[in-house]
Amino acid sequence: MPKNQILTYVDAGASDWTAVLMRAVAHQLPTGSYEIRAVVADDIRFDSTLFDDAALFIMPGGADLPYCALLNGAPNARIRTYIEAGGNYLGICAGAYYACREIAFHAGTRGAICGSRELRLVNAAAVGSLPELTSGKLYDGTPGTAAAVRLRTTEALSPESIVVRSHYHGGCRFDFGGPVPAGTEVLATYADTNEVAPAIVAARVGLGTAVLTGVHLEISAEDFAEMLAAHPDSARHQEICGLLATDCNQRQNVFRQVLRRAGLVLNA
């Protein structure tokens, strides 16, 4: 019997964009096919049936340290057991950092966040943010460090490689320290870095799959414009909306391909 729940983490650390993510995923699903359920750390810790009907667990963007604070130990063990038994994990931005072997966020600065991570679904270091994509600016949570970056998809995602714009705000590249490990595939790279930098990856974890993305394919030009409307210097950042709007259909197609790799059956 198909599993029909999509569990989305909404506890401390999850950003305000999580509602946008849940809406964007729902828009790609056949009517009545899945239930998108918001979950918190206590659900993972105490609900023994939580993963019984789970088709996908989504860890959204936000902040990695609060994830560690609430999920290290038994909750992470439950998430990993679910995936190893055939479940699926989609980690976006902070959710991607969180699922790597280690994190190197702003290494060498006063605000650095570095170290190993317990969930360790992908054998890579998550390195960010990437100032080469944001005119030399390190992520600071403001629209001034957001960008509409170019991604280049690989044949592991679709037969024909394309370049598409996506919203970026503090995300990582995946550093394997050598060849890509067996069972892991690079689905897309950043097109505007000096060296090949994986932006989206997928890895086998036992019988399951983890898909990690350093960018926010789910955020449209309209979503970002709505966020900017409440910002005091929104006019300075409208260019990003224009860039995101130039290839919105291609970006949505890539988002759909990523969701498929994460185990979902989508609408026509």
From TrEMBL:
Record InterPro entries: Biotin-prot_ligase_N, Class_I_gatase-like, UCP016642
Listed GO MF terms: transferase activity
The UniProt record lists the keyword tRNA-binding: no
Cited SUPFAM superfamilies: Class I glutamine amidotransferase-like
Pfam families xref list: BPL_N
Gene3D superfamilies: 3.40.50.880
Keyword terms, alphabetized: Glutamine amidotransferase, Transferase
Boundaries of every Biotin-protein ligase N-terminal domain copy: 5-267
Protein name: Glutamine amidotransferase-like uncharacterized protein
